[in-house]
Structures are given as C-alpha cells and as structure tokens.
From TrEMBL, chain A:
NCBIfam families for the chain: trpA
Organism for this UniProt entry: Nonomuraea angiospora
Keyword match Ligase: no
Name assigned to this protein: Tryptophan synthase alpha chain
Active-site residues, Swiss-Prot/TrEMBL: 49 (proton acceptor), 60 (proton acceptor)
Any Pfam family the entry gives: Trp_syntA
Automatic annotation (TrEMBL), chain B:
Gene from which the chain derives: trpB
Enzymatic class: lyase
Reactions catalysed, as given in the entry: (1S,2R)-1-C-(indol-3-yl)glycerol 3-phosphate + L-serine = D-glyceraldehyde 3-phosphate + L-tryptophan + H2O
InterPro entries named among the record's database cross-references: Trp_synth_b_CS, Trp_synth_beta, Trp_synth_beta/beta-like, TrpB-like_PALP, TrpB-like_PALP_sf
Function: The beta subunit is responsible for the synthesis of L-tryptophan from indole and L-serine.
Residue positions, PTM N6-(pyridoxal phosphate)lysine: 100
Pathway: Amino-acid biosynthesis; L-tryptophan biosynthesis; L-tryptophan from chorismate: step 5/5
HAMAP family: Trp_synth_beta
Keywords: Amino-acid biosynthesis, Aromatic amino acid biosynthesis, Lyase, Pyridoxal phosphate, Tryptophan biosynthesis
Protein name: Tryptophan synthase beta chain
Chain ranges of the Tryptophan synthase beta chain-like PALP domain: 67-384
Alphabetical list of NCBIfam families matching this protein: trpB
EC number of the protein: 4.2.1.20
Length: 278, 397
C-alpha cells in the first residue's frame, strides 16, 4: 500500500530506529506564533500538530481550551492560520487538528483542499469516530491528506484493528480515558493499548494525552513509536514562554528519546537530519 | 379538518436506526473514548424499552413520584380573550415542576439497570438538574450536575434545591458560562469515568441514542395529551400543537403524540437562541444538527431570558421535522415572553416558566395577527412552572 505525505516520513524515521516526537501548538495563539513551529522543527520534531482553534473543544482539558479561547480572542481563524502556514518552508510535516464543525463549515472536500494548499500533510479530528469518518476520509484521500484516526483504551479489539487499518499517517493512541492534560504518571492502559494496536497493524503508533516529561516520553516509547506533546507546551506558551524556551524544552525530550534509542538499538544510526539536536 | 389523518410519512419520529440518523441529522460525533459508552447506553435502552418489567417500573414511578398523568387544563379566560380554544398540557404540575423528570426517571432507571453507580448531568435553567437530583435521591445514587456560572447566578433557587437533595453542583466558568459550556464540561467528565458514571442528558440532543431515547421518555406527554384531547375536543385532535424549543425535549415528546395526525406542529424558540429557525448545519456535543455559528464555524452564544433556551443548537429530530415541513419553528422576543407570562398568570392563575411562556407568546401573537384562525383549537405544552423565574420577573414586571 502506498503511504502518504505524513506517513512516509514517519515510517522512514521509525524504520531508521528513531522514536517519533510530535509537538502541538494552537495556531494563532500569540503574535508571531509561527516562530513556535520553527523552534519545534529545530528541536527535532518529526511532525508538528497544528491546532485550528474551535469555540467548544470538548475533548480538550482546561489548558488547550484556554489556548483555543485566547487564539479566537485574537481573531484567529482556520483560514488565516493556514495562510500563515503556507508562507513557511518547514521540512517537517504538519498535521492539522480540529473539531468536525470547522470541517463541515467548508465541506470536507474544500477543507482538505485548503489544507493541501497550505502544505499540511495530515488531519486529526477528535470528535469524528470511525463510524462517521467516511465522507472526510474520502475527501482526504482524494486530496492527499492523511486522515489520522484515534484509538482509546475503551476501544474493543475488532474495532481497534479496523481503526488501525483505516487510519492514515499514524494511529493516535489516546493514553487515558480523559481529556488532554498533564498528568503525574503515564496511565497504565497506555502500554496495553499500544500493544493491542500493533497486533494487527504495522502503521506507526503515537501516544498522546498526559505526556509531559522526558521520563514519561521514554516510558511511552518503550512500546509506542512516538509521542504527542500538547498541554505541557501550551501551558508554557500561556505562561509566556518564547519559541526558544519551548524549543529548549523539546530539545530535552528529543535528547531523552534519542538516548533511549541509542541504548536499545544496534547498530546505531547517526542522526544527520538538519536541525536535530545532538 | 379530518381527524387523526396521517399527515406524515411512516418512520417519522420512530427508531432512528443504529446510526441514529434523523434525515441528515443526528449521529455519533464523539471522541473514540466515548463510542463504547454510547453504544452501551443504546444497547441497554433497546433492551429496556421492550422489557415489560422496565416499562412497568417506569410507569409506576411516573404515577407514584411524578403524579402522572398531568392534567389537560382548558385556559378558559385566555381562550375567550384570544378567540381560540387553548388547552394546556400541565407539565408544570409534574413533580419537580417541569417535564424534565419524565426523561430523568427513565434514564436513572436505565443507569441502575446498567449497573452504573452515579449520575452526571448538565443543566441550564436548573430544572433538569433538579430532576436529576430528585431521581438520584429517590434511587440512592450520588449525582454531579454541571451548570454555567451565569446560570448558577440567575437560578439560585434551583441550585439550592439540587444541593438540598444531596447533589453536587459544579459551576462552569468557561466560554459563555451557560448551558453550552456546562454540556461540554459534563462530556469531559464522562470521558474520564465511563465505567461508573451514567451521563443523563437533559434534552433531545447529544450523540445517539440520546436524542431518540429522550424523545421516547418524553413521549408520555404527547401520548397522554392525544388521549386527553380525544375526550376534550369535538374533532379529537387539535388544529395546532405548540411547545417551546431549546434543545427541544418537551416539544419532541409532545409532537411524538401528534406527528401522525393532522395537527400542525409549532416549535417556539427564543429570538436569540433559534437553532431551528436560524441555525446552520454543524456538529457539536456529539450530534449533527442546526447550530448558531459564525462564518468561520465557531459556535456563537445564544441569548434568552429563559436559561433553558440558552442553547445554540436544536435537537437533530427537530431539524429533520423542519426539513420535512412537518413542524414549523418560529421565534418570539424576550418582551413578548414576559408579557405572555403575565397574561397567563392573570387570566388563568398559572405562572409559567419563562421557557414555556415562549409557546404562550406565540399563541397570543398568532391569534392577534390572524395566523391562528378564530375558533382554532390549540394544544400547548406548559413545560414548567415559573417559581424559578420569579426573581427575573420581579425585575421586569
């Protein structure tokens, strides 16, 4: 099966023995917010999740919700954010994430075309489960956007297999039964969920929700192919952290993941990608 | 006008099937973490609704605790003033003061059947919250109710009632601090505890099976009214059936009893919260329907003098009935609502909830403009009583 603009680079990195790091930022959160995207790329992100803010983000915890409200209060719109992104020349794939109402506003086909025009490679829609995803999946496939599906600890095995089969780019494994947010420890069901997804699929699996420290990231990637870091980044940005500050935090995560790989992988493959932290 | 003539095609207001679709509306637009929980509720409801033991237990609770059947009261003086025959279906006389208890008892019994150990809910005006608190106390279940901070401020009496009944009330300070945000917060809370908690949705909104299930639990209003009208009206069926619509549960329950008749169905929305009349296609809180939103797809705030109608969308089945032309959705202003509440109080000795006063306001206007022809017969569901709105009314009357 041919893989898309998001999945190809993620598979290549994973198959090269790397653990994947996907930081998140809410589009339009501050003036000059695209600086965060550049900082993420420089810190060694393998993909970047770009949140298109929605007024009622029901799956997000307080921090992402606050970020969405702040971006909307600044006048951020999905089209405005995509226009800014289109100007960037990042060599890291971008994955838009938003709620289905924004997709429906333009219509799935037009929405996906707008993503492609902006150079976005993938799409995550947390309130669009497998059962309702048909129309958007077709539109995404037609425009070359990888529609990423989510899996949760409550998903039965047969459905999980179907999600892994129909997801594109990667499978987004939700580590906890809950909303996005920082947590003291990685939830127990996370490892089991990753194992269950991998039973029937070779697609990359990224674990998200509640991962904020290098230790948690390393623990998560013992089974998963990578991690998504959202709330921990947005908390820092809402507290005033500049792109360099957040970049430094991500560099720490990157280093921890790479060290873990070096310890567990043989033979070691030197990472020669531009901008990747040593 | 012929009596009891089927004025709609078969299948309308029936089982929406496994995908929970009402035409292009409805569905299951929830995070993957909630899919299994929604499916479980659907399976349990499908089983329960055909189980004689469950039906009997619900009927008994409705009779013993709610006081059903509620009466059909002729509004004699107001009818004379308006030149029509107005009959009031008195959900304001149901225990806890509104129709909300019908649905809540059904869902609470379902929660027990499913082995759930606590209830969570959202509330706008507080009537649904009071109903949940009451059912929780009755069945010995703890309950947590999410309520927008603005609604907590303007519905102090209901907040006190819930707390007195032993329910935890959680004020929600995000967004517009009203029902929309309380609903979002309740969904977040549910995601984190689907094993133990049962989410008791208060209107014909939310992911499948809620819009269908809530309509079925509220169908008792329409079924009773249909039978009562048969005894009270020479034509057996009224010319018009009128109910207020926020999410639209009392209207859905009422319409369900008359959808197969010749009666014209009228849903009355608040001018500032008119999902059915002025909304556009969208997805929020797990379902596809009509929502108030801006050009960028951001949900906009609804405004109504009645907290229970402060919701930016409408139940998916109402959107479908609108598309079919089977029901018509109209709006009234806050001023008309206050005027209607006062007129009903003075003519009939009934202080209605401001939500219900929307339906009264339309009847008054339609009689004045001739939209309701002289002598027309009108069934109006008075969804709740106005005690909770006294402080609001005190400022305005």
């Amino acid at each position: 099966m041919s893989t898309g603009l998001l999945e190809s680079p993620l598979r290549a990195r994973r198959d090269g023995g790397h653990k994947l790091l996907m930081p998140y930022v809410t589009g339009g959160i501050t003036p000059g917010w695209t600086g965060y995207l550049r900082a993420f790329a420089a810190a060694g992100a393998d993909a970047i999740e770009l949140g298109l803010p929605f007024s009622d983000p029901t799956l997000d915890g307080a921090t992402i919700q606050e970020a969405s409200d702040a971006a909307l209060a600044r006048g951020a719109t999905a089209h405005g954010i995509l226009a800014e992104v289109a100007e960037l020349r990042l060599d890291v794939p971008l994955v838009a994430s938003t709620y289905y109402n924004l997709v429906l506003r333009d219509g799935p086909a037009e929405f996906c075309r707008a993503l492609r025009r902006a150079g976005v490679a993938g799409l995550i829609v947390p309130d669009l489960p497998l059962d309702e995803a048909g129309e958007l999946a077709d539109a995404a496939a037609a425009t070359g956007v990888d529609l990423v599906l989510l899996a949760s600890p409550a998903t039965p095995q047969r459905r999980l297999d179907e999600i892994a089969r129909r997801s594109r780019g990667f499978v987004y494994a939700v580590s906890v039964m809950g909303t996005t947010g920082e947590r003291a420890a990685l939830a127990e069901p996370a490892a089991a969920l990753t194992e269950r997804i991998k039973q029937g699929s070779d697609r990359p699996v990224l674990l998200g929700f509640g991962i904020s420290t290098p230790e948690q990231a390393v623990e998560a990637t013992r089974r998963a192919d990578g991690v998504v870091i959202g709330t921990a980044i947005m908390r820092r940005i809402l507290d005033g952290a500049a792109p360099d500050d957040v970049g430094a935090y991500l560099t720490g995560l990157r280093r921890a993941l790479d060290q873990e790989c070096d310890e567990t992988r043989w033979p070691a493959t030197p990472d020669t990608r531009r901008g990747t932290a040593p | 006008m012929a009596t009891g003539v089927l004025a709609t095609r078969p299948g309308v207001m029936e089982d929406p099937g496994e995908r929970g679709r009402f035409g292009e509306y409805g569905g299951l637009y929830v995070p993957e973490s909630l899919v299994a929980a929604c499916r479980e509720v659907e399976a349990a409801f499908r089983e329960a609704r055909t189980d004689p033991a469950f039906r009997e237990s619900l009927a008994e609770s409705l009779a013993l605790h709610v006081g059903r059947p509620t009466p059909l009261t002729p509004a004699r003086r107001l009818s004379a003033e308006l030149g029509v025959t107005l009959l009031l279906k008195r959900e304001d006389l149901a225990h806890t003061g509104s129709h909300k208890i019908n649905n809540v008892l059904g869902q609470a019994l379902l929660a027990l059947r499913m082995g759930r150990t606590r209830l969570i809910a959202e509330t706008g005006a507080g009537q649904h919250g009071v109903a949940v608190a009451t059912a929780a106390a009755l069945l010995g279940l703890p309950a947590t109710v999410f309520m927008g901070e603005r609604d907590v401020e303007r519905q102090g009496l209901n907040v006190f009632r819930m707390r007195m009944l032993g329910t935890e009330v959680v004020p929600v300070g995000t967004g517009s601090r009203t029902l929309k945000d309380a609903t979002s917060e309740a969904m977040r809370h549910w995601v984190a505890d689907t094993e133990e908690a049962y989410y008791c949705v208060g209107s014909v909104i939310g992911p499948n099976p809620y819009p269908w299930m809530v309509r079925e639990f509220q169908r008792v209003i329409g079924d009773e009214a249909r039978e009562q009208c048969a005894g009270a009206l020479p034509a057996a069926v009224p010319d018009y059936v009128v109910a207020c619509v926020g999410g639209g549960s009392n209207a859905a329950g009422t319409f369900a009893g008359f959808v197969g008749t010749s009666a014209r169905l009228i849903g009355v929305e608040a001018e500032g919260g008119a999902g059915a009349a002025r909304g556009s296609l969208g997805v929020l809180h797990g379902f596809r329907s009509l929502f108030l939103q801006d050009d960028h797809g951001q949900i906009t705030e609804a405004h109504s003098i009645a907290a229970g109608l402060d919701y930016p969308g409408v139940g998916p089945e109402h959107a479908h009935l609108r598309d079919l032309g089977r029901a018509r959705y109209v709006t009234v202003s806050d001023e008309e609502v206050v005027d209607a509440a006062v007129r009903l109080a003075r003519a009939e000795g009934i202080v209605p909830a401001l939500e219900s006063a929307h339906a009264v306001a339309w009847v008054i206007r339609a009689a004045r403009t001739g939209e309701l022809p002289p002598g027309a017969t009108v069934l109006l569901t008075l969804s709740g009583r106005g005690d909770k709105d006294i402080s609001t009314l005190k400022e305005l009357v």
